[in-house]
Amino acid sequence: MFTGIIEGFGTIRDIRPTGQGSRFAIEADFPLDRVKIGDSIAVNGACLTAVVLDGRRFEVDVAPETIRRTAFSTIHIGSRVNLERALRLSDRLDGHIVSGHVDGIGTIVSKERQANAVIVTIAVDKHLSRYMIEKGSVAVDGISLTINEITDTTITLSIIPHTADITSIGFKQAGSIVNIETDLVGKYIEKFLMTPKPEKGVKSSSLDMAFLAEKGFL
């Protein structure tokens, strides 16, 4: 589990094919002294497992499913990526709950300066935007961000200078592909609501549209 608060950059030092998957060698720009083999590290928002550690350099295996679902197909040696180590229970939850399971990709449509902020518009598929709301949270390349505006096919974000300086959103341009993870709470609620009611005589959940409306959620 992660928070979407990026700890630093990593640089892709090597990419080796492993069947239909890949192994990435990544060099972090911060110490990995508390990381051990088997630990999870979010790389551009995708939860990957460290299988080799050597100082600030680590290696991860990237499965074919991960490559299909993410922007890793566009990555190359020298690419800079966002890194976040897994959340500890004693840490503050400064961003939002991020699982590291990327739902799909988006494409940066535009970046415009507005006072001290950069307004970024990203094109997304409808199957992603359905789980987003205005002023809700979204993880873009693993960065916890707030949605300013949303349509069926785009989201608009306001990036402050600090975020632009320490994450990849600052140097990515229009046309860049980014990883998207939507807020997982909405997906679970949809699953509960869409699950068929149990057969007669089987105890059912009291969570339904009427219950949510009664409690003020709709």
TrEMBL record:
Gene3D superfamilies: 2.40.30.20. Pfam families: Lum_binding. It is an enzyme of class 2 (transferase). InterPro entries: ATP_synth_asu-like_sf, Lumazine-bd, Lumazine-bd_dom, Riboflavin_synthase-like_b-brl. Residues 1-96, 97-193 form the Lumazine-binding domain. Lumazine-binding repeats lie at residues 1-96, 97-193. Keywords: Repeat, Riboflavin biosynthesis, Transferase. CDD domains: Riboflavin_synthase_like (cd00402). It comes from the Bacteria. Pathway: Cofactor biosynthesis; riboflavin biosynthesis; riboflavin from 2-hydroxy-3-oxobutyl phosphate and 5-amino-6-(D-ribitylamino)uracil: step 2/2. It catalyses: 2 6,7-dimethyl-8-(1-D-ribityl)lumazine + H(+) = 5-amino-6-(D-ribitylamino)uracil + riboflavin. Its EC number is 2.5.1.9. Catalyzes the dismutation of two molecules of 6,7-dimethyl-8-ribityllumazine, resulting in the formation of riboflavin and 5-amino-6-(D-ribitylamino)uracil. This is Riboflavin synthase.
